[in-house]
Amino acid sequence: MPKSRNLIGINVKDEISLDDAFLFDCQHGNKRFNLYCNISGVTNCIEEELKTLIEAKLSINIEVSLIKKDAKWRNELKNTIKQRVSRKNLKKILNNTSKREFESHFPNICAVFKEIENKYL
């Protein structure tokens, strides 16, 4: 990518790859800002990553048809998760998940959070 390019009035100065997420160093007029983009999930949505965490923590298999991964497939996955795991159990799983497990099951969003932490904290 060239060092600087202009998209919809926003000048992108630099792009940093963070796993399957990206950090764009941007400028609009005299204002400078960072834009973090997360490509949620393995191929499509964050529920894909949530599915792997649920399967690992509860030792259950969440099956979804192997059709094209589109909006219909995404909704089927979300509904299957809701049917198989109660909201209460999901909260319990998330509360009892270690940082290492989060990084393993949600690498893209964790990469964005890690970059924010390194840059601003």
Give a verbal description of the structure.
By secondary structure, the chain is of the alpha+beta class. 47% of the residues lie in helices and 23% in strands. The chain folds into 2 domains: 5-39; 46-105, no CATH class.
Defining traits:
single chain; 121 residues; alpha+beta; 2 domains; four-stranded antiparallel β-sheet; 5 helices; 23% strand; globular
Topology (elements, then pairings):
Elements: E1 5-7, E2 10-18, E3 21-28, E4 31-38, H1 46-58, H2 71-84, H3 87-95, H4 99-105, H5 107-120
Antiparallel strand pairs: 1-2, 2-3, 3-4
Helix pairs in contact: 4-5
Reading side by side through the largest sheet, how are the strands ordered?
1-2-3-4
Radius of gyration: 18 Å
Estimated structural class: alpha+beta
Q: What is the rounded distance between the termini?
A: 28 Å
| Low-confidence runs | none
The average pLDDT is 82
Number of domains: 2
Helix content: 40-55%
| Global outline | globular
Please outline what is shown here.
With 121 residues, the protein is an alpha+beta fold.
